[in-house]
């Protein structure tokens, strides 16, 4: 009998016990759908983490002032701070040729108020270079300028969440005065929406000249809470980090190993997060593989039952001359057809499920998961049907005909 005849016979066998066959397919369906969905969840989580980290800045280093003490030569020591002198030295291309820009940062939380509306927001005092380094863009108006910083101007760029909560829909916030704490600031620019990073809401910010923030909100200080350093490229970010650390170590009369500051390298953070996400995705894939294994056991179980039920049929076919290979292929193809049908339905189910968020994560379809899942489903049919088919083909005609 040719392949077409075997497939037709397999379909007849499946339809004769359609409920049992459907339940068997369900095991394969769930396994295939699980592979597609869980790999999509892992890929979506990985991309979300990468997007969150990337949204914090482009090729950036963040130097945090922990208020620790810098050990100096001799017996003296002093509190380590990030100062305007550090900013100038790091921003000098002769000292740090791989640094694109350096932005001092002073941050505080304040309640923004306008015409009775209030909104709790993060206020960031910095310089114009902070916006491009942090991936902020202006959607209307202008950004703070060097002249604003020098003149201690009370001007701000509003994040979209702040603007939407303070001003009525359709109104133009530009030129309006808002209150931050007890001080008034004029809105000169609106920031394009950045979205939530998962760590914080990138739109719930107000950016102002750091000099004005010091004057009105935090008090005068010669130190900054952090420095945001932008490298010239991701390839040279590690070199930029070495240059920054060397400058700060020299300024604090210490060594890089004993540097009293924390330096966060965005590239290293992204690499670590991506590696962890890949491990998580692989783990999800193995969990899905267990579902397919359960489906394979179900197919094998049903095929063993089928062989037992059709023992007399097998004896008749062998008695009239059917070779062992024909009987083997008959039951093997039936197992493969069940698995393939379950696999096709599983792919369709998986493609539907990945369109919806799962526990806050938007799955991203991994294109390789479809042929992978279908291929595994096919192998499930082959391996699950191989032993029952071999058992059927090995029956002696006389024994099969005697079977009750």
Explain this structure to me?
With 404 residues, the protein is an alpha+beta fold. It contains 13 helices and 12 strands. It has helices at residues 3-16, 18-55, 84-91, 130-133, 146-150, 160-166, 210-218, 237-251, 266-309, 311-319, 324-353, 369-393, 397-402, and strands spanning 60-65, 69-71, 77-79, 99-114, 117-126, 138-141, 155-158, 177-180, 183-191, 205-209, 226-231, 261-265. The strands form 2 sheets. The protein has a 6-stranded mixed beta barrel, surrounded by 4 helices. A hairpin with a 2-residue loop joins strand 8 (177-180) and strand 9. Helix 1 crosses helix 11 (324-353), helix 2 (18-55) packs across helix 11 and helix 9 crosses helix 11. It is elongated. The model is unreliable at 72-77 (pLDDT under 50).
Based on Cα principal axes, name the global outline: elongated
Instruction: Report the mean per-residue pLDDT as an integer.
Output: 81
Low-confidence segments, ≥5 residues, pLDDT <50? Answer: 72-77
Number of helical segments with 4 or more residues: 13
Structural class: alpha+beta
- Biggest β-sheet, characterized? 6 strands, mixed, barrel
Can you write the helix and strand succession as a string? HHEEEHEEHEHEHEEEHEHEHHHHH
Measured between the Cα atoms of the first and last residue, the distance is 27 Å
% residues in beta strands:
15-25%
Radius of gyration, CA atoms, in whole angstroms: 34 Å
Query: What percent of the residues sit in helical stretches (DSSP H or I)?
Result: 40-55%
Q: Within the largest sheet, what's the order of strands?
A: 4-5-10-7-9-8
Give the strand tally. Answer: 12
